[in-house]
Design goal:
7-stranded parallel beta sheet; 8 helices; globular; Rossmann fold; alpha/beta; 269 residues; 44% helix
């Protein structure tokens, strides 16, 4: 039995949503979008102050402090979730870090390991705990947040790109494993997301290349057919769509939300 679609295309109220790294950035926008559609939302984040701010703004939500690269903390997160809700309908595996921006031969093994630990291993830790709960749901869905860097090569961003490509392989494999249980698994691949983070990246690139921020920004914009950055809300809207009956037959897909990336430089979200 699928959940009911309301007349405005939103998901049925009351679904339990878990958003990792959900207290700030894209994760927060996703969490607040589901909250605005009467979902029950639990977030985790490594930053306790970000969680405090999120809960002040969204008193109907709940949260746990957790580093998804720590399997013990992930277990505690799911214990919190089950104690509060006793169920899960949608896992949004959003946690990720940028990792180092260096040629491969200059990357320290510890930096490589940390990037993969969060961007890939953490997604595995969360999915393995989520799946038994999702099998009990009539609306089970896993949404992986990958990147356009998971569809293209990305010079000087090897650990980041490798992790984001791996998420697409994970998505397609889990879609095959879980489809018989009615669980859909998809990946969202954002391009460069407007906001403070991309502006910091532009400033860094301008300094490193001896160019102006406007020149770097123009280069990035020319990488997409639509010549624009996307918004965090664009990503959240896709997550909402994939969790609803509007996306009930979509699984195993890597969905670009990027204005159509034509090529990449060495920086993504």
């Amino acid at each position: 039995m699928q959940h009911k679609i309301m007349q405005d295309g939103s998901i049925h109220p009351g679904l339990v949503i878990l958003v990792t790294a959900g207290a700030s950035g894209i994760g927060r926008t996703i969490a607040e979008t589901f909250l605005s559609h009467a979902s029950r939302v639990h977030v985790c984040d490594i930053d306790s102050s970000a969680i405090d701010d999120f809960l002040r703004a969204n008193p109907g939500a709940s949260a746990s402090v957790a580093d998804v690269s720590d399997v013990g903390m992930v277990d505690s997160l799911f214990n919190d979730l089950e104690e509060r809700y006793g169920a899960l309908d949608v896992l949004v595996n959003n946690a990720g870090v940028a990792g180092p921006t260096l040629p491969l031969e200059d990357i320290e093994p510890a930096d490589w390991d940390r990037t993969l630990a969060i961007n890939l291993h953490g997604h595995f830790y969360c999915a393995r705990r989520a799946i038994p709960l999702l099998k009990k749901s009539a609306a089970g869905s896993i949404i992986e947040i990958s990147s356009s860097a998971g569809l293209f090569g990305c010079p000087s961003r090897a650990p980041y790109a490798a992790s984001k490509w791996a998420l697409i392989g994970l998505t397609k494999t889990l879609a095959m494993e879980l489809g018989p249980f009615g669980i859909r698994v998809n990946a969202i691949c954002p391009g460069s997301v407007e906001g403070r983070r991309i502006e910091q990246v532009i400033e860094f690139e301008a300094h490193e290349q001896g160019r102006t921020p406007d020149e770097i920004r123009s280069t990035y914009l020319r990488q997409t057919s639509m010549r624009q950055f996307i918004s965090a809300q664009d990503v959240a809207n896709m997550a909402l769509f994939l969790a609803s009956d509007l996306g009930k037959s979509i699984s195993g897909q890597a969905m670009g939300v990027d204005g159509h990336t034509e090529s990449l430089s060495n920086v993504m979200i």
